[in-house]
Amino acid sequence: MKKLLLLVFTTISISTFSQEINKGRFYTATVYATFALNPDYVPFDKDDGESLLEPSAIFIRNGLGYHFTEKLVASVNFGIDFHTRLGIQSLPAYFNLRYNISSNDDDLFFINTSVGKLWKPSSNFDRGDYYSGGIGWQISGEKKLNTLIRLDYHRKKIEGMNDGNLDSISLGLGMTLF
Questions:
Q1: Cβ-count burial of 130 within 10 angstroms (0-12 exposed, 13-18 middle, 19+ buried)?
Q2: What domain range is 158 assigned to?
């Protein structure tokens, strides 16, 4: 009986420690860049000196989250957005839900969605609602640090804006720390 219990305990211990699935709390930070078509660009003009795309917005995001299962991750995030072309600044605070579609070794491919509010602590910022969704790739790194590459669609419903919505697609580079 003692040998059987020792064998069961050893098997459970080995299988538990051989799986390096990061569960529990984590910190995340991401920087996004959004590009827009350059209105000064002239196609097929070699002397133009202009590029087709130019940066139009920068988003900086931070958050705290929790891995509930291998597939389900949730986080609360805060950030600051600078839409340089339009002269708009916003402070989004939002809840993010991520679902890991598949994993390759320790790398994860995921989809995510977010919903939240745009806060207005001063007249420099705009108030409204925030929504986003996208896809991403989490690349496993050394120890507890992972790299994130994301492609997200953002929608800001800004109060008092003529068009009502500010939509953008952005490319993000970030990290998670467990």
A1: buried
A2: 22-177
Quote the pLDDT of residue 45: 79
CB 58 within 8 A of CB 33: yes
> Is position 139 within any domain?
yes
Total domains present in the chain? 1
Compute CA 81 distance to the chain's CA centroid, rounded to the nearest angstrom. Answer: 13
Q: Tell whether 8 is covered by a domain.
A: no
B/e letters for 10-48, b = 16+ CB within 10 Å, e = fewer, are eeeeeeeeeeeebeeebebbbebebbeeeeeeeeeeeee
99's tokens: 């679902």
Nearest residue to 144 (alpha-carbon basis) of 18, 41, 25: 25
Q: What is the model's pLDDT at position 78? A: 98
| Cα-Cα-Cα-Cα dihedral sign, residues 13, 145, 110, 88 | positive
CATH code (residue 98) = 2.40.160.20
